[in-house]
Amino acid sequence: MDFYELAPFLIPAVILQIFVSGYFVHQCITHPTLDKWTKLKYALAIAIFNLPAAAFYLLKVGKINIYEDISKGIFRNHVRQANFAFIVIAYEILVIRTIANHMGMEEFGPLVWISALGLFMMILTEILIQYRQMRIAYGLSVVLVICAFLFQLVAADINVPYLVIIISASVINNYPLKPMKFFIGGMILGFIITQLSRSVLVDHITDMDEVVSMVYLNGMILTLILSVFYMLKKFYVINDQLNITVSTIENQNQIIKELSATEERNRIAKEIHDTVGHRLTGALYLIESASLNEMKVSRNESLSKAYELIKHALDDIRHSVKLLVEDSSIHFEDKLIALKEQIESHTGLVVEMDVQLNEPIPSVFQRLLIQIFMECCTNTVKHAKTRKAHALITHSNHLLLYSFTDDGSNTDEVTFGFGLSTMKESVESFGGKFDARSGQDGFTISIQLPLLNQLGGSHDE
Asked: Domain span at residue 105?
């Protein structure tokens, strides 16, 4: 076998090996995150083992471009390049085996040239895709498919169907999923027509049953293998898209948490302004009145009231600052229990607390529930003829659920005073639902808060 007879295939193959080695060795050396020893290890492996080592390098430490558009169903660039390396390896092995099986035969020369053209089209298509010349790449892929059919017409060899599969996989690897469904159908149809043509026109097989059974069997095998490759690509793309979606949701949740914390501080600042400002204004008015009042008794009464207002204002400030500067080491449930014990010791109200939370809830909701719990206990002590109540906090189907029930005997009518109205407005400002019911079995408040839409609605009070 003369070297010059194999030159059309060997020369592009050798050039490819040298190009791949140089390209990926340079990538290893200039990789921004690998240490020197790892760079040397990969560079030597690629220089010695070439394509297999290059494919392993791409899959192991290939750069992931987060801005790549994979919505159309394409591999990420480093994965596609790794697949390309494996496909070229398989193509070269099958071509060498096919050529070796036809040495000295009439079809030897055409096989060498078809093999060389196919390899050249693979290399050139890959280069064009790297430079985003997709229209020209599509055209070269058509030439590559023609090479697959030429293999069928020229050689009756066991390796030819595998070459058709490898060339088809090369095309599926490079392009989006949607057009590849039509490509697979066209490839199978072309394979059947080409094999029928060779069986009848070249091999002169007259037994049509034999021809149909052979074409049917090979066609089914080709269909199965190409479908599997297509489904594997589809599974990879969908999994990649899901990972991106999960990462996006996690980033958005982090942003929501930060916005919630900022919003919570703004709400507390507004409360300080409204409540403390109101109390201090009243105290200032009483002090001014006392300074103008000549009657000692009236003056002392005004000063006493001013003292109480200032004292309550200081208590409001302490409470708001305590909520603003939360101790992250204290669990939400522990805060509720501590508040429950404090209420029980001061009022005598016994509250059965049931908290069923498997994961943390936003701090803005923690604060809201603490305020609502305090208001519920206050209402029970003031209005219900009972000293027992039950509180439940849980979550289900992305909803935070809260209910508070006392054992008092109430009327069927619920009057929304300042406390209930404030609770209702606060809950609805987060896109939640508020319900208050009264009956012979007691008074019940039920709340639903959406955990996935914490910032929905207006938050102004």
From this structure: 3-204
